Amino acid sequence: MEISKLKQLLIQSWNLETCSPGLRDKWSEENPSLGQCAITALIVNDFFGGKIMRCMASSGSHYYNIIDD
Description:
Elements: H1 3-13, H2 37-48, E1 51-57, E2 60-66
Antiparallel strand pairs: 1-2
């Protein structure tokens, strides 16, 4: 799968139910990526491998991928 296609599918799938429970009160259609980092990182990892990383952000934990360094 091309990364651009996966990005499009992920954006279409983000909603309140897929948001991290601790951020659901702040989620909105205007900011659909809020609270989606953990599940998104897992899905990206399934398709492209690499490492899933975690850091602390102002809203709590943030997950992201490192692919091919």
